[in-house]
Design a protein that fits this description.
single chain; 4-stranded mixed beta sheet; 3-stranded antiparallel beta sheet; globular
Length: about 140
Amino acid sequence: MVDKVAAIWVLRQDGAALLQHRDDKPGLRHAGLWVPPGGHADAGESMSECAHRELKEETEYDAPDLRFLMSTDREYEDGVAFQVSNFWCRYDEKQPIVCHEGQGLEFVKRSDAEEYRILNFLLKIWDDAIAASNAHSDVVRP
C-alpha cells in the first residue's frame, strides 16, 4: 500500500511559501529539512480533507480557498513509495500562523530557497504553485 500524503503551499503575494523546518530526530523522514506543511491521510479521508486537517493542526491556519495543484509519486530515502497530493492557497495576511510541529515555520522567498535545506523536487512544485496562484488572480481574500 502506498502512503498518501498532502502538502500545502501557503503563498504570500510575493510568492514566498510557508515552510516548516522539520524536527531533526533520528529515524524521522526528511529530518531537518524545510518542507511545506502537510502529512499522511487518515483511513477514509480524502486528500482535500487531509490537507485542510494537517494545515490546521500544524499551523492553526484555516484555508477556505485551498486548491488542488498536482499529485506526484515519490520514494523515501529507504525506498518506500508515497504519493503526494499538493494543494495551494494564498495567505490572507490576517490569520496568525502558529507552529505546532517541527522546529519552526517561516515564509521563505523563492529567491532565497537555495539558502535552505529543501528537497530539489519541491522547488519545481513551488514554482508550479506560484504559477497557479498568479493564474487565479480572481481569488477573493476573506
